Amino acid sequence: MTSQRARDRLIERLTGEGIRDRRVLDVLRQLPRHLFIDEALATRAYEDTALPIGQGQTISQPYVVARMTEVLIEHAMPRRVLEIGTGSGYQCAVLASLVEQVYTVERIDELLRNARRRFRKLGLSNIRSRHDDGRLGWPEEAPFDAIMVTAAGAELEEALLDQLAADGVLVAPVGPPGRQELLRVRAGADGWQRENLGAVSFVPLLGGVA
Asked: Which residues contact 65 (CB under 8 A, 6 or more apart)?
């Protein structure tokens, strides 16, 4: 079921679950999530659930995508965003529909190639992508107004914090499987201020490339 009616029902569900930012909801209403998953799973594209995309990875459930996007842009709309973990490309496409420029890093070459094809199909020309170890970020293009990490590390990566603009925000899941928390991090007078946004479940943030 890939119709607009299915997307509308998903938005109703997300609204009922507490997503309030109309900008985020409007993007998710328009963006064809079924293009980011295998055709065999297309009938499940607008369920509020994570789905496999191969290589041991998943496309995050729409609620998580909406929530992470909402908290990233809550205080100000960033101009340049770094995403760690391109995956299917869905979260990146959501960001690219809202901000001026997205830089995305993916360690698995096959996933990145598939995501790039989807970006071209959708005409998303404000995305730059890189096949690399996401834990390193993209230092040549730093600083970034915002950074989103879509895989869970044991702790926040110092290299990523170093690439955040002085008034920037980082949103990332942190912790071991079963005990992960979504954090929003901002610079404060006494160092980094961390806000716990609740329990989540993400694939692990791994190093190297594949």
From this structure: 28, 90, 91, 94
